[in-house]
Amino acid sequence: MNTWRKFRADDRGSMAVEFVLVTPILVWIIMSTFVYFDLFRNEANAHRAALTLADMFSREQTDIDGNYLNGARSLLQTLTLDDATPGFRITVYRYQQSDDTFRRVWSRNRGVGTNLTNADLLALQTAGRLPRMADDDRAILVETFTDYEPPFDTGIRFLTSFFSADGVAPREELDSITFRTFNVIRPRFTLSLCWEVPPPAPSLC
Question: Is residue 25 part of a domain?
Answer without folding.
Answer: yes
